[in-house]
Task: structure prediction
Amino acid sequence: MVPTDRLLAFAAMSFLLIVVPGPSVLFVIGRALAQGRRAALTTVAGNTVGAYVLVLAVAFGVGSIVERSVLVFTTLKLAGAAYLVYLGVKAWRGRGSLRAAFAEDVTAAAAGHGGLRTFWEGFAVGVTNPKTIVFFAAVLPQFVDRGQGHVAAQMLLLGLVFNVIALVSDAVWGLVAATARGWFARSPHRLSLVGGVGGLTMIGLGVTVAVTGRKD
Result:
């Protein structure tokens, strides 16, 4: 399988990429501020699954198409950006009624709907994250030892390492943000501010994702 030295080098590079807040981290923070710990962790779970779908795509050849095609890359990037802006606008518009939203979230979670919706929203962000797409398509294959064979299996293992690190890092970001949110929740004005900040964060992130990236 993957030689130990390559595995460790990949883990180190992955860690450096992950700890710097990007689309996924900022989305989790925004969700934690707007909806709390449970929503943040559910978002992290969906995000992680979405990122691993990218690993599967790269391992079985689709990633190379995304990396070579400016049109495909740009389409995927803009789709992710538009979705972030949409979610941000929703959070901003609902900033004045977060208490009612919390009650609805509890009811929805009991019915099995709220958590699933949050999971898929996190999945959408994870699978359209431009930073992760480029990293998996351009960097991950460089750590594969083709002489060892089982190239796809090696990529799946490397991708798993990346996702475990991302899962832990994103969860920590989400929990810290959700903890800070508790202080705001004690005041209706603060609570409204939290919803606004979370919404604006996601809107700003969506715009940033749309205007950055490949220029070729």
About this structure: DSSP finds ten helices and no strands in the chain.
